[in-house]
Each structure stands twice: as C-alpha cells, then as structure tokens.
Amino acid sequence: MFYRPQDGHPLPHDPFGAIVAPRPIGWISTRGADGSENLAPYSFFNAVAYRPPQVMFASTSAKRDRGDTKDSVANIRETGVFCCNVVSSALAEAMNATSGALPRDVDEFAHAGLERAPCETVACSRVASVPAALECRLVQIVRLEGAANFLVIGEVTGVHLDDAMIRDGLLDVTAYRPVARLGYRDYARVEELFEMARPKG
C-alpha cells in the first residue's frame, strides 16, 4: 500500500500515529501569568539533546478560549517555564482524565485527583506521585506547518527522581512501567527490556 497524506488514506482510520510508535508521553504542567495551572499529556514528546539536556513537545490543536493554541502553550508563552511529568502505569487513568479539552478555568490536578508539588527551579507545579519529572525553561517555540501546530523546546533545569525507582545506581523503568502512546486509542507499558551494546569504532 502507498498513499500521499495530502490525498487522504484508504483505511478506516489514519495510520500515521500507529506507524510512529510507541511514543513517550510528556505530561506537561504549566502555570499562567494569572497563577492558574494546567496539566495535559502530549504524545509528540521526546528528549532532543544531552548537553544541555533539552526536551520537546508539540501541540497540534487549539481551544476556542485560547486562540491559536491550547492552555499549555499559552501558559508557556506567558511564563517561559514548564515541567514534563513521566507517566507511570499506575497513573495512566489520571493522565487520560487530563487529556480532554477542559475549560481554561478548570484545574486538571483537581479534576484528576492528583497531588501537586512545587518545582525547585521554575515557577509551576509538578505531579507529586510521578516517578520522574523534568523542570524546563523555554528555549524556543516553533510554529510548524498547519493551523495550530507548535513545537516547544525546553532546557531541563531540574530533575526529580523517585528514589524507589533507582536500583543498582540505574533508573529502573520496569519498576514504574512507563506508558507510551500508540495509534488509535492504544497505549503500551514498558515491562520488559533487552540490552544491546553499540558497535565499536
């Protein structure tokens, strides 16, 4: 099968999200200039550099009460900071509860029954119960092709790790089983690992 995205696809549902999968989920917490907080998951998310450590997420839709984007990007525009919370298997349902297009004045932490904790290097909250969280200062917002597509790049300024997830000096992802986004309504949990050494030279 071959198709050109500009012409549409011949399947009942768009396969693009299932092709580029699994994708880690950036559960992005932000605070607006007015002090209101937002928490939303983004599956177009990843680490993009080691030194300095940087991450990115992309927002691909807009809300009527936020103009050309969603609450996360609007808040980051105002304050220049955000936090990426790692979604463990135990928090999958809570993450999903924060994924809806809720009104601007709804607090997703309260909506999903989540405890918040203060960040150390940036002025916003993080999810207290996540296995890891990355505090970030905005590097750049890039407008992508499309009406509401924005790429947000942040430099990691602080890292929170749950000590219970560190085993033999390594962060053990099988201890918290991170949730990844697949296509359609599908998700995956990381429960099994295999190791490969890079070739020398």
How would you portray this structure in words?
Pfam families: Flavin_Reduct. This is Flavin reductase family protein. It comes from Palleronia sediminis. GO terms for molecular function: FMN binding; oxidoreductase activity, acting on the CH-NH group of donors, NAD or NADP as acceptor. It is built from five helices and 14 strands. It is mainly β. It has one domain: Electron Transport, Fmn-binding Protein, Chain A (Pnp Oxidase, Chain A). The strands form four sheets. It has a seven-stranded antiparallel sheet with strand order 3-2-6-9-10-5-4, covered by helices on one side. It has a three-stranded antiparallel sheet with strand order 1-13-14, with no helix packed on it. A two-stranded antiparallel ribbon has the order 7-8. The mean pLDDT is 95.
Brief write-up:
The protein is mostly beta strands. The chain has helices at about 15-20, 70-80, 90-95, 110, 175, and strands at about 25, 25-30, 35-40, 45-50, 55-60, 80-85, 115-120, 125, 130-145, 150-160, 165, 170, 180, 185-190. The strands form four sheets. It has a seven-stranded antiparallel sheet with strand order 3-2-6-9-10-5-4, covered by helices on one side. Strands 1-13-14 form a three-stranded antiparallel sheet, with no helix packed on it.
